[in-house]
Amino acid sequence: MSLKHPVKSFALVIGIAVIGVAAYSQLRGEAVSVVRAERGELRQAVVVSGRVRTPQRIEVAAQITGRVKTVNVNAGEALAASQTLLQLDDAELSASVAQARATLTQSEARLQQVGELGLPVAEQALRQAEANARQARKQYSRIKELVGKGFYSPAQLDDAQRSLDVAESQWRAAQLQVGSNQPGGSDVRVARGNLEAARAALAVAEARLAYTVLSAPVAGTVLTRSVEPGDTVQPGRILLTLAPAGDTELTAQIDEKNLGLLVPGQKAMVSADAYPGERFAAEINYIAPSVDAQRGSVEIRLTVPQPPAYLKHEMTVSIDIEAGRRAEAVIAPFVTVREASGAKPWILVVRDGRTQRQPVRLGLRGAGKVEILDGIAAGDALVPTPVVLPEGRKVRAVAP
Questions:
Q1: Is domain 29-55+246-400 given the CATH code 2.40.30.170 in the classification?
Q2: Domain residue limits, the chain
Q3: Cross-strand partners of 383
Q4: For the chain, N or C: smaller number of CB within 10 Å?
């Protein structure tokens, strides 16, 4: 009996201690891990993947069918304005030019001949025809008189009439010939028309010959080359693609939910995926006026004032656009904000040892953090999700 009483007494003491600890814990409340709101600088950014592009591309194609003789450039090569890109076989077209030049020379000589020789010859022929016509008239008059006196037969008068008719016809023809060889006459007009036609034919032949040489319209860079010597090319087939020298642009598709954060003129820092340690500045210069309904995205473009030498067309880049910055902000971890995308976000706060549902007004959003414009002060204990506790629960705030 003496041994049993101490055991009962010890058990009683232990039981009282457990009850006391439980009562003390109940009094102090449930332990809950919390994080503290803090004050500091917060930067909101939109980070998106994009590509390097030039403001425009020039696609070079042949205007005639021909066999490629030489290709003088390669992809990636820098070009000067008017630099020869490729040459087509020009043997046939060169012969056409030579033929057109010969025709032009003949036409020029013909016009000169009309002016220097045609008119004087026509005038001389006119004088001769006029003299013949006078002589024929006199002869006709004499024969007519002699026929009247019975010395000549009527048949001789008929012959004289025919000779007179021929002479007068030749005289009229000579007059027309002189007129046609005058500066405004038909022969001169025909000669001038032939000369103009020969000049036009030469211009066409020279233009077609020029089509055999494709030159760079502006200074820039060769992006693509899809032609080799010996190829037979058709009009309209793209042979080379050029990027004109000028401002470098970046293009990217942003989620439409970020559209309200961006405006033209915003600055950005960019890094190429191939050179992640290098960063360069860019600036938004274009935001598309419409949303791509299928992807829910909006196209933006950024200019690069000083593009690095390693930047190449279609290179993939990471674009960090600063949408806002606050030097002195009340900052809470984003995991503490409940219903953040709704109209009434709130945070579960521990105040005076009890949980309290606190509506908040959100501001800038950074990497895993959010600015609290109203409702929370620096140092407040915040209960992160997914912990769910009823409002008014007595708790003990402990560090995680």
A1: yes
A2: 29-55+246-400, 58-89+215-243, 92-210
A3: 348
A4: N
Alpha-carbon radius of gyration of the chain = 51
CA 363 and chain centroid, separation: 38
- Token pair of 321 as six digits: 């656009």
Whether the Cβ atoms of residue 188 and residue 110 lie closer than 8 Å to each other: no
- pTM of the entire predicted model: 0.51
- Give the three-class secondary structure for 33: strand
**Given the structure tokens 């449930």, which residue do they identify?**
30
Contact 383, 337 (CB under 8 A): no
| Cα separations in angstroms, 88 against 82, 208, 221 | 16, 11, 21
Q: At the top level of CATH, which class does the domain 58-89+215-243 belong to? A: mainly beta
Residues 296-350 have pLDDT tens digits of 999 999 999 888 888 887 899 999 998 888 889 999 999 999 998 888 999 999 9
Q: Tell me: the pLDDT tens digits for 58-82?
A: 899 999 999 999 999 998 888 899 9
Identify the three-state secondary structure at position 245: coil
Write the CA distances from 116 to 42, 174, 175, 277, integer angstroms: 94, 17, 18, 83
In angstroms, the CA 47 to CA 49 distance is: 7
pLDDT at residue 399, rounded to an integer:
82
Paired tokens of 351: 């105040």
The number of C-alpha atoms within 13 Å of 152 and in the hemisphere containing its C-beta is 17
Between CA 131 and CA 238 the distance in angstroms is 74
